[in-house]
Amino acid sequence: MSLHIHDRSRRRFFARVGAAAGALMLAGCDRLSQTDWFPRFLGSAETLNRTLAGTIAGRKAMAQEFSPADLSPTFRSNGTALPQNAEYQKLAASGFADYSLLVDGLVERPHRFTLAELRALPSRTQITRHDCVEGWSAIGKWTGARLSAVLDRVALKPNARYVVFHCADPMEDDGTMPYYESIDLDDAFHEQTILAYDLNDKTLPIQNGAPVRLRVERQLGYKHAKYVMRIEAAESLADINGGNGGYWEDQGYQWYAGI
Amino acid sequence: MTDSVSEPALAPAIPASSRSVEPPLYYRHRLPVRVMHWINVLAVTILFMSGLQIFNAHPALYWGKSSYTGQPALLEIGARENASGSLVGVTRIFGHEFRTTGVLGVSRDAGRTYRQGFPDWLTVPSHQWLSMARTWHFFFAWVFVINGACYLAYTIGSGHLSRDMWPTGADLRGIGASIIDHLRFRHPVGEAAKRYNVLQKFAYLVVIFVLLPLVVLMGMAMSPRLDTVLTGWVDIFGGRQSARTIHFLVAWALCAFVLIHVFEVIVTGLWNNLRSMITGRYRVPPEAA
Q1: B215 burial type by CB count under 10 A (0-12 exposed, 13-18 middle, 19+ buried)
Q2: Quick one: CATH architecture of B4-62+125-283?
Q3: Cβ-count burial of A97 within 10 angstroms (0-12 exposed, 13-18 middle, 19+ buried)?
Q4: Above 90 in pLDDT, residue A18?
Q5: Contacts made by residues B139-142, CB under 8 angstroms, sequence distance 24+
Q6: What residue ranges define each of the domains in chain A, with the CATH number in brackets?
């Protein structure tokens, strides 16, 4: 080379260029994350994820079930452990004797299910793994009414495309913004999708979502709505709360949580 | 068969007859390889850094089907307050505790300390933001996989794999000498510099056919939906939490590969190597020193 720069200073120069490029890249990634358009562009991959999942893992494919030996010693409580909601706490004080689950929206026969009614519906017991979006997993044994049985009872209207779960736990400190979630009909009518009322052969504890929580086993934990008070059949998610189909979805998490 | 000169596209770019003072430029990397290399650099960098941000949401690793098996975590990065009330970063590996304030568990910024697994400068985005990290990670996972599939198709279809990367008998017999040469920073010159050396071939083959497919597969193993493809397939790797641990370890193994790769690029001539991966032209180090 004809460059008359000392090797060491040239190396130092490249090291500085490298460090500067790295810092620039980091700052650039942060800047892009703050825009509206770039995360939306990156989010287009969600369609690919759903297509891939639907193609190689069939619509009715079953989540793995485990043996009692695999059960986690205690099933971790995450998110809300006790809803800060006076109405809910009143129900809890009487052991949910006055609780009922309203199922309405795009259905032929809206109905309020008491706990006794839910327990009388066709049920399923399954030992499954709960995968939190944060990265941890816990294994628990769940018993609950099949969501398909609940939906058959109220009869969905033909234009219903989503099932929305409205919950008792407020996500804001001032008691507003109740948790909610939604799933499509493939998951709603899936054999392992249940409204769980028992965990590890005991009545579902409050910290895990009493009296009723959703189990939708092929998706991440935040889809498994706890403290379900109302189920609404809907044609679109656009007009419900933030319009993205769930509390965490409104904060930027993926609606499709199978990945 | 390893003599790349027989390949027309790899012939010297400047005829030997032009009596230049400097050795001739040699066409070392073809366009598809160069383009896919740089796409891969971008994708793998973003995947690594957004992956560490995802890890920061729960900075612990386990072995088994779940995180709560009754066994302690293999690795745990956390923070606790010491007697004087300041934050101390603590990393536990197999029950051994290390103080890692400033790097792992607790970060410092302008005199302020805060809880954070891996530090800002290693993650995308830089501050705690799980949903955004996932958005980056899954987009670039597709970029990486599509680019990687194209590379595999090209490298096998064009003969690049069998011609340039598969070790020959002579390569295998020269392993010992090659190891010693590497340790002494003695690098091939002349004709030998036009070919990958045997350690390089092994490193590339392990990365391309073992580490990269494994990191993708272990990523898929963490998806509750992809777990349903064949019931229980994740248990082959020890379960979902084991798969997560393997994903993490392979990511760091790839990081180690990149560090060694970049080190070798620098010590064998940074500009010459960079040019060959940008324009394709490489100046062969002359035979006699």
Answers
A1: buried
A2: Up-down Bundle (1.20)
A3: exposed
A4: no
A5: B139/A41, B139/A42, B139/A43, B139/A44, B139/A45, B140/B42, B140/B43, B140/B46, B140/B47, B140/B50, B141/A45, B141/B47, B141/B216, B141/B219, B142/A45, B142/A48
A6: 62-250 (3.90.420.10)
Interface touch A218/B228, C-beta < 8 Å: yes
Q: How far is B206 from chain A (nearest CA, A)?
A: 27
pLDDT in tens, B240-281: 999 999 999 999 999 999 999 999 999 999 999 999 999 999
Q: Can you tell me the ipTM of this complex?
A: 0.93
For B127-201, list the strands marked E by DSSP.
none
Higher pLDDT among residues A53 and A5, named by residue: A53
The domain locations on chain B are 4-62+125-283, 75-117
Q: For residue A18, give the amino acid letter.
A: G
pTM of the model: 0.92
User: Measuring CA to CA, how many Å separate B121 from each of A27, A30, B126, B141?
Assistant: 10, 11, 6, 21
Nearest to B66 among A129, A217, A248 (CB): A129
Q: Please report, in angstroms and rounded to a whole number, the separation of the first and last CA atoms in chain B.
A: 27
Whether residue A73 and residue B70 make contact (CB cut-off 8 A), yes or no, is yes
d(CA B232, nearest CA chain A) in Å:
6
Backbone angles phi, psi at B262, to 5 degrees: -65, -40
- Reported as half-sphere exposure (CB side, CA atoms, 13 A), residue A150 has a value of 34
Summarised one tens digit per residue, pLDDT across range A207-259 is 999 999 999 999 999 999 999 999 999 999 999 999 999 999 999 999 999 99
CA distances from A122 to A103, A146, A183, B11 (A): 17, 6, 21, 74
A66-90 tens-digit pLDDT: 999 999 999 999 999 999 999 999 9
Question: What SS3 state is found at A211?
Answer: coil
Stronger pLDDT, A9 or A98, i.e. the higher one: A98
Cα Dmax for chain B: 77
Which parts of chain B have pLDDT scores under 50? 1-13, 16-18, 289
Query: CA B68 to CA B180: how far, in whole Å?
Result: 47
Interface of A with B in 119-158 (CB under 8 A): 129, 131-139
3 state SS for B110-134: CCEEEEECCCHHHCCCCCCCHHHHH
| B-contacting residues in A 11-50 (Cβ below 8 Å) | 11, 14, 22-23, 25-26, 29-30, 33, 39, 41-46, 48-49
Query: Does the pLDDT of residue A6 top 70, yes or no?
Result: no
